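Human: Cast an eye over this sequence-structure pair and say how the chain folds.
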Amino acid sequence: MLNSAPRPSPIVASVDFDAKGVQHGHLRLPYSRDDSAWGSIMIPICIIAHGIGPTALLIGGNHGDEYEGPAALFELAQTLAPLHVSGRIIIVPALNYPAFRAGTRTSPIDGGNLNRSFPGRPDGTVTEKIADYVTHRLIPLADIVLDFHSGGKTLDFLPYAAAHTLPDKSQQARCFAAVAAFAAPYSMKMLEIDAVGMLDTTVEEMGKVFITTELGGAGTASATSIKIARQGTLDVLRHMGILGGTPEPRTSRWLDMPSSDCFTFARDDGLIAFARDLGAPVSANEIIALVYPIGSTGVAPIEYRAAIDGVLAARHVPGLIKAGDCLSVVATIAEYPQPGQT
């Protein structure tokens, strides 16, 4: 278990986490640099609190080139009224603010991938300082953490909310119940291929409810994906009792990522030509894509085939691919996870 006791952090909040009403402010991180000797990074934050109830921590922009979550959260920060709230909502729509401003996955300051930097260090890099503040100051306040993701500039996903298989089956059930309340078009039992240093793991090790999303990608956000993010957030808040009412009934198709066989990685550089679109059914050994070497018309394309039966849940973007890039993810059809399932 992580030690959640606060440690000295250079980040200073301009908001009062215990106050009622609506507050718009910043998490100010001192950052001395060539163009500003006593400069700061100003991370936007909003708190909406009223009455007594749980706390939800809503995060967007963990990766700076993923826009569905930030678009929904900036809007909700403007439109949620405290009189409708029983508890507290903490909104950080662009957590990795340097990367968000630059439109990059990782920080332009230190190259840090925030979602591989947890639990962070208060005396580390800029990215590690942000992770440390979230770990020791924000997560302990929360009963549920919703962390928005999408494919960014290099992947495109079916729109889904997700939770992980956990050792604590009671905690796992609470996480999947929140995913069901989010009710994205797809819901995922998610397998991470690189879980070290993730916010996900940090929150789960503290015993909190954690859900995440992959809501499209390709370096943009559509009206549809933003609507999914907004509706899903409101229904998770209703599910937690922070907002009144009950979640809107929507159909969600459950998927699973049961093993590393879901993933296909490019072995070659070239032009990728997909044989299946997102959401299409695929069979084991069926061609997912061809990768054409681009130096000559006389070289045959490389075939990439599915290892399992399922649906195409993610694909590489844009059209050129490099060896080592994730080419595709195939997810299997699943049912709503029942307590005790792994």
In short: The chain has two domains: 12-256, 260-333. The first helix runs from residue 68 to 79. The longest strand covers residues 40-50.
